[in-house]
Each structure stands twice: as C-alpha cells, then as structure tokens.
Amino acid sequence: MELDKSSVANQRIRNAAQQAAAPDRLSVPVLERFLRTGDETWDGAGSGRFTPAQFENNTAYRRAAKEALRTLFHRLADLLPAEANQAPQVAPELIRGQVEPMVKGLVQKDWQEVALRELVSRTFVLDYCGAKSALEVELPSCDMDSAWRILWGLYGD
Q: What global pTM score does this model have?
C-alpha cells in the first residue's frame, strides 16, 4: 500500500510539472525537481544580476512553479485519510484562544489587541482546509519557499 501511494505521488508530481511546463515549453525535470525539493534551479533563479533573458526565464518558471504547486496540492488530496479532507477549517476564535495567553504575557497592553488580530489572521492549522488557505495566501507573494513548505507540511509523510 505504501509503495502504491509513493508511486501515485511520484506520478502526480510528474503530471503537475508537465502541465505547468507545457504553455511556455519549460523543462519538466526542472519543475519536477522544484516540486520535490523546493530548489529553484532554473537559469536566473536567485541571481542578483539578471540579463533580460534570465529575467524572462525566471518569471516564466516562477509562474509555472506556482501553478504546479496549486495543481499538485489538489491532486494529492485523495492520498490523505478521508477524515483529513472532511475536517472543517479551524475557526479563528479557536486560534485566538490558543495564542491569547501568549500575547497577554509578551505584548504590552496597548498593543495586545492589534497583535492578536494580526496573529489570528496569519495563523493556519495545517490540516487540509488550513493548508489550502495558507497556500493561497503565500502563492501570490514572491516567497515560493513558504508555499512549498506548506504543501509538504501537509503531504510530507
């Protein structure tokens, strides 16, 4: 059974990379490596000085990598136990109840409500619903590392 899940996951990683690479004719192995490792190894990635071609290449790969992450997230969902997919999202009130004692102990009184509001709005429980919400918050940003960690935080086992 475990081998079957691993084979299925590997095929879904490959399929998500192929689908994301196709529109711009990008390298499937490069996108597949990103999905597996989080490493942005395409030309221009991480460089402090881009040529115009590297900049365009980096833009295309980042767009494709984000699409591949979204696709893979949904394609792996049925590998989770049924109860994981059916669990409701953790309500903000429950999150607030958990972080409020910490905020009251660490934050000066006149900033506590602001700190609570900001922490609650940025805290996600990494069950299926929470991970989906967190992924959608992170993907529009420039930081794909966080989105990659969210995906594998949920599906890593």
A: 0.79
